[in-house]
Design goal:
Blueprint: H1 8-25, E1 31-32, E2 35-36, E3 54-58, E4 65-68, E5 91-94, H2 109-116, H3 125-139, E6 146-148, H4 149-160, H5 173-179, E7 186-188, H6 189-201, H7 207-224, H8 227-235, H9 239-255, H10 257-267, H11 269-287, H12 293-321, H13 332-356, H14 358-379, H15 404-423, H16 426-457, H17 461-489, H18 492-511, H19 516-535, H20 538-549, H21 553-608
Antiparallel strand pairs: 1-2, 3-4, 3-5, 6-7
Helix pairs in contact: 3-6, 4-5, 7-13, 7-14, 9-12, 9-21, 10-11, 10-12, 10-21, 11-12, 11-14, 12-21, 13-14, 13-17, 15-21, 16-17, 16-18, 16-20, 16-21, 17-18, 17-19, 18-19, 18-21, 20-21
Length: 611
């Protein structure tokens, strides 16, 4: 309670310890009456503060006091001596001048910590431990074999939060000391190495909102999966034309690989994800009006463009937040939730088609996809770290103001360099070729051959097709997490080769003409598990190569685009080939040919990756 001196300034001076006490316990930041009361926040955003408010920041060891810059509060009310660096200079910071990247809800502390220490690109265990040892020696400036609180405070100020005021730090030095596993006032070498390994092995929390987004998006596509074969039968389209319509999707993704990557690198991952899903919803709405094959092609074009935008944005988001030790596991939550969506979606889609009709089901899917896009606009956070604009006197012309021919020249040079990095990595080339072969055979067969095998050979109907696809998704869901763990811990080869072999064996069973009671569980089970193991490898291998070559976010996005394009080209060619084989040989015969090709791909991959 302030004394009755009649002076506003003296009252505020007396109230400063009270504000500090509130700051130690409050968990959200609020600007009230010119005072910023909270010392730290996990969800604070500059837009919550008045643009006119400025505050002075001084950081004593365990608390901070704040005052309004224009209030006349004397410096003695906020100044505190630090035993580490001899006192902190006060910073006058406006709420709206703080970089959004400083806040913990935008960039979590663990990701900021690993990035500042340059540990987020190291994947091999031996290399990681050596790098952590070097980092320990850098932080331990006095060389006593322990990291003290003073050295952690300097680490926070100079490397983890170099451009951020202490008011927005997610952890104080004492809290960081506790996070690193200190049993006393210091962190020894073993405690530091163990804590950093634990941080690097933990998935970034931004994975989960993105995985939920992938679930809802996949759910809409799962509803529509059994509709396309039914629509093809209604329009009396030949099997070759059906294969061509399936091939349009990867063709569009390949054609848009460079533009979408450019947009993702210059305007962010989130806009591409959100707007791509909205474009896909327009394509699904168009599907409800289809009466001719030409209209089917137009709707597939729009859906393909939308899924290309959203897929690039989501994959680049995951690539941004992956550490060197979670490059396969970072894709697992999205794959598992997408598998859960495809476990129930096809059955529901088939039931809706049988109940309300194919066109009405497409309308429901379009509305659902639009709702997913709006949800992502408010939930997802941007993961691309934008570079600050060039200074006016720097002599460098901003990229967006450069002439068009110069921008195209820079773009061509960047892709040429990425192509050299791609070709210079033999492991990445081998895995990309194996993935292209897998998409040529297994993925194209799943979308072209399997529906016709279920409908015509097994005679299960629309609901049976949905149930069969749902069972495959359940098996793939169950295998996604173990597959990602095997790829991260035991190596990419140990996940890729068994996955290829399992998928080839499933296609052999589908071609054998075995009774339906035997064929359905064998085909659905082994094919789904094989797809889960193969799917955990290509993107992780591209991120491995990016780490080996020291590529930044933009260069990594281009490398991911090239790896993704290799798989899309395989699926495009495979869909056309599967349609032609289906017309000439029927579903079992086409499965036999594709199984032989996949067996050859498996043998070639085993030979290329034997070292």
């Amino acid at each position: 309670r302030p004394p009755r001196t009649g002076s506003v300034v003296s009252a505020m001076v007396a109230a400063a310890p009270m504000a500090a006490a509130i700051g130690r316990t409050a968990r959200t930041s609020r600007c009230r009456g010119g005072l910023l009361l909270s010392a730290r926040s996990h969800s604070w955003h500059p837009r919550w503060c008045s643009p006119a408010v400025a505050f002075e920041v001084a950081a004593p060891p365990r608390h901070r006091n704040f005052s309004a810059g224009a209030s006349g509060l004397p410096s003695s009310a906020v100044a505190g001596a630090s035993p580490c660096v001899g006192g902190h200079e006060r910073q006058t910071v406006k709420c709206d001048k703080i970089d959004p990247q400083c806040f913990d809800h935008v960039v979590p502390f663990d990701a900021r910590f690993l990035d500042s220490l340059q540990l987020n690109r190291v994947s091999e265990l031996s290399e990681f431990q050596v790098a952590v040892q070097k980092i320990f020696d850098q932080i331990d400036e006095n060389g006593d074999g322990c990291i003290e609180r003073c050295e952690l405070e300097r680490l926070l100020r100079e490397r983890i939060y170099p451009t951020c005021p202490p008011s927005v730090w997610a952890l104080t030095p004492d809290e960081l000391l506790e996070k690193l596993g200190a049993t006393g006032p210091r962190v020894n070498r073993d405690e530091f190495v163990s804590a950093v390994e634990r941080i690097a092995d933990t998935l970034d929390r931004r994975v989960w909102p993105l995985a939920t987004s992938q679930f809802f998006s996949a759910l809409m596509f799962a509803f529509g999966q059994p509709l396309t074969p039914l629509l093809v039968k209604e329009l009396d389209i030949s099997m070759t034309q059906f294969g061509g319509t399936v091939a349009m999707m990867p063709l569009i993704r390949v054609a848009l690989a460079v533009p979408t990557t450019y947009v993702s690198n210059n305007y962010g991952r989130k806009p591409l994800t959100v707007q791509g899903q909205m474009v896909a919803s327009v394509g699904f709405a168009m599907s409800a009006l289809i009466t001719t094959p030409l209209q089917l092609i137009a709707s597939r074009l729009v859906i393909g463009a939308g899924t290309s935008f959203a897929g690039v944005g989501q994959q680049n988001m995951l690539g941004d937040i992956a550490t060197g030790r979670t490059r396969s596991r970072v894709f697992a939550p999205g794959a598992m939730r997408a598998g859960a969506a495809f476990a129930v979606g096809p059955a529901i889609g088939g039931w809706l088609a049988a109940t309300v009709g194919v066109q009405a089901t497409y309308v429901l899917i379009a509305a659902g996809m639009a709702a997913v896009s709006l949800r992502n606009h408010y939930v997802l956070t941007e993961t691309l770290r934008f570079e600050p604009p060039k200074a006016a006197g720097s002599g460098e012309q901003p990229q967006e103001r450069a002439p068009l021919h110069q921008r195209f020249g820079v773009l061509a040079h960047e892709w040429k360099k990425t192509s050299r990095d791609f070709c210079a990595d033999p492991a990445l080339c081998a895995v990309s070729l194996a993935n292209a072969g897998f998409n040529f055979t297994s993925i194209s067969a799943k979308f072209v051959l399997l529906p016709m095998l279920v409908l015509d050979t097994w005679g299960l109907g629309a609901s049976g097709l949905g149930i069969a696809l749902g069972c495959m998704s359940v098996a793939q869901l169950a295998a996604a997490k173990p597959a990602a763990y095997v790829a991260d811990v035991h190596g990419r080869r140990m996940a890729l080769l068994p996955g290829l072999a399992l998928s080839a064996s499933a296609m052999v069973v589908a071609a054998s003409g075995a009774p339906m009671e035997v064929a359905v569980p064998l085909v659905c089970g082994s094919w789904a598990v094989g797809s889960a193991f193969v799917g955990s490898v290509p993107s992780a291998m591209a991120l491995d190569a990016a780490g080996r070559h020291g590529l930044d976010q933009q260069q990594t996005a281009r490398l991911l685009a090239m790896s993704r394009a290799a798989g899309d080209l395989g699926m495009m060619a495979g869909s056309l080939a599967s349609g032609a084989l289906l017309t000439s040989l029927g579903a079992p015969g086409a499965f036999g040919v594709q199984a032989g090709v996949l067996a050859a791909v498996t043998a070639a991959a085993a030979r290329s990756l034997r070292h």
